[in-house]
Fold this protein.
Amino acid sequence: MAGTLWVVSVPIGNSRDITLRAIGLLQNADVILCEDLKPARRLLHELNIEKPLVPLNEHTEANATREALELLRAGKDLALISDAGTPLISDPGQRLVREAIQEEIAVSSVPGASSILAALVLSGFRSDRFYFAGMLPRDKSDRKKEAKQLAARQETIVILEAPYRLAQLLDDLLEAFGVERRAAIALELTMPKERVHRGTLLALRDLFRARPFKGEFVIVLEGREFRPPHRAHDRRSKP
């Protein structure tokens, strides 16, 4: 009988945010698949857990997926973790999950911390309907094109980006969304220095130009204001 692939959420910053269920599954897994070895070893050291680690990232995905499937077929239980938060959200691992499902291998999720949801509920914008845009394209023209498409959405929009590209992202969003669009930038979520800056894109752009920030962040943008379509007056004569 094949083993089970557990997709296990880990903290996004504060190590106390890991769940008891996640700890138990990491303790019982035969092998742990991780995005990078260093943060995985740090987490397991804090939990006093020693397990074989297999790195699964953009450089190792093909080989790691093949190795993981062989272990699962042999009856081993595997835990898949990311560097932070919930795996597969802008992280590698989708190929493994998809192929495990195709082979009818059991896949189960262990929910937990998510920077996307944490930033969304702190933004003050509507959270019943939102659109997760992930990371915008690296290519400048593609990036601007996608930003313009996002500006037309009515849902709240959540965007991730690498720590060192906040200033460039704000410039691109300002151009696409306009100076008055409101946004919230959540910095160092769950950590002692956590803070959220809210305001117009222009104000936020100027703030981070004056005070550059290089840490982890999530940007949440208010959706475009809904305006019902204009209805022409009925010019027919009344009886």
In short: The first strand starts at residue 4 and ends at 8. Strands lie at 4-8, 31-34, 53-55, 78-80, 106-110, 130-135, 156-160, 182-187, 195-200, 217-221. The radius of gyration is 22 Å. The chain has eight helices and ten strands.
